[in-house]
Design brief:
The protein has one domain: Alpha-Beta Complex (Spore Coat Polysaccharide Biosynthesis Protein SpsA, Chain A). Helix 3 runs antiparallel to helix 4. The two termini are 25 Å apart. The radius of gyration is 22 Å and the shape is globular. The chain is α/β, with parallel strands linked by helices.
Length: 343
């Protein structure tokens, strides 16, 4: 009954509110507010890049108005600044593949891994309680002779981020490739990732460009000349400049109170920031796990992988990207692991 009364009052006055909010005076006030938040964002970002103590930044901006900036400062106070020891040996590569109702696609994803020029050391598939589990088992079983697959079914519903973290916790590899179950990897992906970490043993996270496709995947355009790898690696300054733009123009003020929409650039490096396009060291994932569903309710974005990429960069300043499309991202998938908003 109360909901009906509320809805009638809301519908009676919302048109008037729209008139007010679109008035030039209120648009001017909103623009001033956004400009203030941009200035705060740039100052906070600069302080973090210059390695000013997090507590002093937190104290200086404890009354910052932007919700997203508040959450970033709180999390950075938790994580702090980190520096990891360089990898000392040929890294083992684990592929973590969360799965939920992607039975029609996972065969294509596994086929792309079976065709790698250098095979992964293991593939961990985490099934997040798919409906037709028997069909999934039959599909995965066909690839066990050609791929080192570890197949695990979750005991309780995990959703996207926690499923990735669970898979990573089981991995034996030094570096972990996150691979969506409906996407396709370039045949040289594992080889290039291994080569990169051999040349950059102190890197915490690697991303790469991606191709977008729907329907049947037609294949990648080319094989890459590995001697050209280094000239296609983004330097640290490129990341710092790119993130500065994100902090300034992300418009943190656009967040709705119910958290349904949150501003954010999906792909923070000009390369992919999505789960299927990132590779992380396992010791990094021990410190920066994908957010739980409850944590995502208070996050600055509803995309757990974008949030993870942002914190790893701010905390380590040891991230990189390759300007090669190393995986293809499916845009017409009708099912997904799920985000916190599904709860």
């Amino acid at each position: 009954m109360l909901n009906k009364i509320y809805n009638r009052i809301y519908n009676a006055f919302i048109w008037r509110w729209n008139l007010y909010i679109n008035h030039p005076f209120f648009r001017w006030i909103d623009n001033r507010r956004v400009q203030e938040q941009r200035k705060d964002a740039i100052r906070i970002y600069t302080d973090i890049i210059e390695r000013k103590p997090i507590l002093s930044i937190l104290n200086e901006f404890k009354y910052v108005k932007s919700y997203e900036l508040q959450q970033i400062l709180k999390k950075m106070n938790q994580y702090g600044y980190k520096k990891y020891m360089p990898l000392e040996k040929e890294p083992l590569v684990s592929v973590v593949m969360p799965h939920y109702n992607h039975q029609q696609y996972i065969g294509e994803a596994l086929d792309s891994l079976a065709k790698q020029t250098v095979k992964p050391d293991e593939i961990i598939i985490i099934d997040d309680l798919s409906k037709d589990f028997d069909l999934l088992e039959k599909i995965v079983e066909k690839y066990k002779t050609s791929l080192p697959i570890r197949f695990v079914r979750a005991e309780t519903k995990l959703y996207c981020g926690p499923a990735k973290s669970y898979g990573a916790s089981l991995a034996k590899g030094d570096i972990i490739i996150m691979h969506d179950a409906d996407d396709v990897s370039h045949p040289q992906r594992i080889e290039i990732v291994k080569l990169f970490f051999n040349k950059h043993p102190d890197c915490a996270q690697l991303s790469n460009e991606m191709l977008l496709f729907s329907g049947e995947f037609k294949g990648f355009d080319e094989n890459y000349n590995l001697s050209e790898l280094e000239q296609n690696v983004l330097d640290n300054k490129s990341f710092i400049d790119r993130f500065r733009e994100i902090f300034e123009f992300q418009l943190f003020s656009k967040r709705k109170k119910n958290g349904v929409y949150r501003a954010g650039s999906y792909g923070p490096y000009g390369c992919s920031g999505s789960s299927g396009g990132i590779t992380l060291r396992k010791d990094v994932l021990n410190d920066f796990s994908y957010s739980s569903q409850e944590e995502l309710r208070t996050a600055f974005t509803s995309w757990d992988d974008y949030e993870l990429c942002t914190y790893v960069f701010l905390s380590t300043l040891a991230v990189s990207a390759i300007k090669f499309p190393l995986y293809a991202y499916r845009t017409d998938s009708s099912t997904y692991i799920g985000s916190w908003s599904d709860n």
